[in-house]
From TrEMBL:
Protein name: Aspartate--tRNA(Asp/Asn) ligase
EC numbers: 6.1.1.23
Source organism: Pseudooceanicola atlanticus
Family stated for the protein in its record: Belongs to the class-II aminoacyl-tRNA synthetase family. Type 1 subfamily.
Main location: cytoplasm
Length: 591
């Protein structure tokens, strides 16, 4: 017999009754039923009930074991009585009577309990992650992640892509986040960088004649943490294709992503029609460039109904250039209680409040209620109702000003309204391509023009488009949104040096600086670069959605905490004096 096990803890069933077996695993739970000890023995695959009574030659040893001890047992498989069968587990028809036991690893008093669903502070869970990962939900999440990655790889190979590995140590590149720098020992005073993405290398692969590339790529960004983003590193499905237009990329990646969600989505509906929505339309209707289309609410501009109206706040606001009033329809939200709750939500978001109108049945007809209705009068109120397609029992909420100041709050309000009123279909994955992103944005304080998205994208209209107002230039850039999250970001690349120099010039980068920062790529583009494009899909975020988790750390094996610290391994740590000397570095103490 094998030194540790003849079967896993998920393999035994009624056909094994009478067999002598050997199992190894962790003590999940111990129960003492009148001198008979029952142990749920757990390994990665499942659970088997083993038992011991005073007739066992090792009863005294079994009495000593405690939760999470790692043990090996030898025993005889017995059938459970019919009334004691547990149909919830594969081994529920049998139990194993212990004849011999060996303790493979003792466990100290546990800082967190593996059995059950107790909640623990995140700091505790991350400090003792190896215990946290023993929990059933975490084992399930990490197995799901592994299976998703394996399926992605197969689907990409089936689509005639090949996987290539790009460097982990490279040059610093401005791609929207801070680099992690790595000091060079051989070149004192100079630094490598960990790649924010394989962006330049995958483009260089296209110049090198590799037609279809993909990689499950690690990416490193020194970012502030969020629930849906890791603060240090993450993995993405990175791909690039030559001789393609934007639609070709969409047609290639949709079957891969759609297939993953159909395979691992737990029976939820997966949309097969993926609309293409412009960035401007998404901002207007949904208040975000990653809309949740499970929520049917679409915002509308209603400025004309408030211009010159009796509601002075909005009327005066509209006299200022660049302002507008938007309405958020709220079907079935027509109660003062709900409207007051949403008004309080807006105040928590930092706004003075959120105007509202709701419509109720007065027996002899419909009445519009709320402060706004009284101020603007029945004619304007009725025009708003008809524009929004609302009726008795419905409501509408209103925000005004410059869109950039209130769009984010409006988008979050739309999300809350959809969930609270039960309008959002929770049993669905809804996808949308967001297209026509602006290439540039202006700093509100300085007016300085900079890239708003990927700097390597091809501007729509090519070189001619860059001769006019930079803020009107659109790029061949696109994101894929799903259920309120950005899953994919990509672009058709700028492969022509003259267009690249002009594009960077508008953002304040001269040709010399572009050659210095991106010399390898610029030089390569002078030797017959093909048109090419691609995208990258966030593996962690995809698995987070499939696992129905709200925090990305629930699907990453060893994540950092909110302060980008690894509490388990003690990172970041202070270097030794010898290490600093070897690297010709000195640490300046912080005041």
């Amino acid at each position: 017999m094998h030194a540790y096990r003849s079967h896993t803890c998920a393999q035994l069933n009624a056909s094994n009754v009478g067999d002598t077996v050997r199992l190894s695993g962790w003590v999940h739970r111990i129960r003492d039923h009148g001198g008979v000890l029952f142990i749920d023995l757990r390994d990665h695959y499942g659970m088997t009930q083993v038992l011991c009574d005073p007739d066992s030659p090792v009863f005294n040893e079994v009495e000593k074991v405690r939760s999470e001890w790692c043990i090996r047992i030898d025993g005889n498989v017995k059938a459970r009585a019919p009334e004691l069968v547990n149909p919830k587990i594969p081994t529920g028809e049998i139990e194993v009577f212990i004849r011999d036991i060996e303790v493979l690893g003792h466990a100290k008093e546990l800082p967190l309990i593996v059995f059950g669903d107790q909640e623990y502070p995140e700091e505790t869970r991350l400090r003792y992650r190896y215990l946290d990962l023993r929990r059933e939900a975490m084992q399930r999440n990490m197995t799901l992640r592994s299976d998703v990655v394996a399926s992605i790889r197969k689907r990409m190979w089936d689509a005639e892509f090949r996987e290539y590995q790009t460097p982990i140590i490279t040059a610093s590149s401005p791609e929207g986040a801070r680099d992690f720098l790595v000091p060079s020992r051989l070149h004192p005073g100079k630094f490598y960088a960990l790649p924010q993405a394989p962006q330049q290398f995958k483009q260089l692969l296209m110049v090198s004649g590799f037609d279809k590339y993909f990689q499950i790529a690690p990416c490193f960004r020194d970012e502030d943490p969020r629930a849906d983003r890791s603060p240090t590193d993450f993995y993405q499905l990175d791909l690039e294709m030559s001789f393609v237009e934007q639609q070709d990329v969409f047609d290639t990646i949709q079957p891969v992503v759609q297939g993953i969600f159909e395979e691992f989505g737990g029976g939820k509906t997966v949309d097969t029609e993926w609309p293409q929505i412009s960035y401007a339309e998404a901002a207007l209707k949904y208040g975000t460039d990653k809309p949740d289309l499970r929520n049917p609410i679409e915002m509308q501009v209603v400025s004309e109904h408030f211009a010159g109206s009796g509601f002075a706040i909005f009327a005066k606001l509209l006299e200022q250039e660049g302002t507008e009033i938007r309405a958020i329809p709220a079907p079935t939200g027509g109660s003062r209680k709900f409207c007051d709750r949403m008004n309080a939500f807006a105040q928590k978001e930092g706004l003075p409040g959120m105007g509202y109108i709701f419509w109720r049945d007065q027996g002899d007809g419909m009445e519009a209620a709320g402060p706004l209705a009284k101020n603007i009068g029945p004619e304007r109120t009725e025009a708003i109702r008809q524009q929004l397609g609302l009726g008795v029992g419905d409501a509408a909420f209103f925000l005004g000003g410059k869109p950039s100041a209130f769009e984010g709050v409006a988008g979050r309000a739309r999300t809350v309204i959809g969930k609270e009123l039960g309008l959002t279909d929770e049993n669905r994955f809804a996808f949308a391509w967001i297209v026509d992103f602006p290439m540039y944005e202006a700093d509100e304080e300085t007016g300085k023009i900079d890239f708003s998205h990927n700097p390597f994208s091809m501007p729509q209209g090519g070189l001619e488009a860059l001769e006019g107002d930079p803020l009107k230039v659109l790029g061949y850039q696109y994101d894929l949104a799903c259920n309120g999250y950005e899953l994919i970001s990509g672009a058709i690349r700028n492969h022509k040096p003259e267009i690249m120099f002009k594009a960077f010039e508008l953002a304040g980068y001269g040709e010399d600086e572009v050659r210095k920062r991106f010399g390898g790529m610029v030089n390569a583009f002078q030797y017959g670069a093909p048109p090419h494009g691609g995208c990258a899909a966030g593996i962690d975020r995809i698995v987070m959605l499939l696992a129905e988790e709200e925090n990305i750390r629930e699907v990453i094996l060893f994540p950092m905490n909110q302060r980008a610290e690894d509490l388990m391994m003690g990172a970041p740590s202070e270097p030794t004096s010898d290490q600093l000397m070897e690297l010709s570095l000195r640490v300046i103490p912080q005041e």
